[in-house]
Amino acid sequence: MAVRLGLLKQCLHDPERHPVECTQRDALLTFYYAAGGPNWDTMAGQGTTIWDPTTYPCSNSHPWVGIQCTFTNQVVSFHKNYQVVSSIDINGATLLGTFYVLSGTMPAELGSISTLTSLQLENSRVSGTLPTELSNLNKLDNLAIWGNKITGY
Predict the structure, then answer these.
(1) Residues with Cβ within 8 Å of residue 106, at least 6 apart in sequence
(2) What confidence tier does 11 reach under pLDDT thresholds 50, 70, 90?
């Protein structure tokens, strides 16, 4: 937890990053740790890092597997045309052609990714209740969560 908080603070003080990028990375890292993400890297083997917490989900040099991004096409303050997360696709828990067993819950923080249009976590063994914060995702038009152990909200 302290490492994640340190990364968020570092991000928020990075003049090259828009605060939205920091918030989205933090939400995705919360999901990563809640769903057994460190084990994804172990299963990928060969030093593969599926989601590198020291980078950004929409990084050109090291994009996160299963995350799709789009440009905002807007200028906010001095941040020009930054990228935002538009889709999370861990369909069948497959990343890099390998079957991964996600475990744990879907954190409420996913509801803070307001640019999300697609959330595909089918057959991923995610459990618990569906966070009510997902109702904040006004742009979400594709929600695929069948094959999990998710109960009502």
Answers:
(1) 31, 34, 35, 121, 126, 128, 130, 131, 134, 150
(2) low
Whole-model pTM: value is 0.78
- Give CA angle at 49 (43, 51), nearest 5°: 110
Residue that is written with structure tokens 């879907």 in the block: 106
Report the SS3 class of residue 78: coil
State whether the Cα torsion 127-66-70-15 is positive or negative: positive
Q: What's the token pair of residue 121?
A: 């976590």
Tell me the β-bridge partners of 3: none
Q: Report residue 11 CA to chain centroid gap.
A: 16
Show the CA angle centred on residue 121, arms to residues 115 and 127, nearest 5°.
Answer: 115
